[in-house]
Amino acid sequence: MITLSQIQTRIAEAITQSGMKQTELAKQLRVTQSAISHIVNGDILPALDTLANLCKILDVDANYILCLE
């Protein structure tokens, strides 16, 4: 069974491994840097549209992020 914790971990890892600064990522996603920080810390999950755009920007497969691979 897939858990939210697993998804949050994969999102945080993808952001961290990208090497992109949170401020730049926030600008590209049109969210606040604080929102990115909360996502990385596992405090919140991004909205579906934000998650889709995050995958596109970071060139990460959404199936991986959603633990479907």
Can you offer a commentary on this structure?
The structure is a single chain. With 69 residues, this protein is mostly helical. It has a single domain, classed as 434 Repressor (Amino-terminal Domain). Helices cover 67% and strands 0% of the residues. α2 (22-29) packs across α3.
Short key terms for the protein model shown above:
globular; mainly alpha; 69 residues; 434 Repressor (Amino-terminal Domain)
Characterize this entry briefly:
With 69 residues, the chain is mostly helical.
Order of helices and strands: HHHHH
Text of the CATH class: Mainly Alpha
What is the C-alpha radius of gyration, as a whole number of Å?
Answer: 11 Å
Shape: globular
Biggest beta sheet attributes: none
Mean pLDDT: 95
In angstroms, what separates the terminal alpha carbons? 13 Å
Kindly report the name of the CATH homologous superfamily: lambda repressor-like DNA-binding domains
Q: What is the helix tally?
A: 5
CATH architecture type = Orthogonal Bundle
CATH fold naming: 434 Repressor (Amino-terminal Domain)
Number of domains: 1
**What fraction of the residues are assigned to beta strands by DSSP?**
under 5%
| Strand segment count | 0
Protein structure class: mainly alpha
Percent of residues in helices comes to: 55-70%
Poorly predicted segments: none
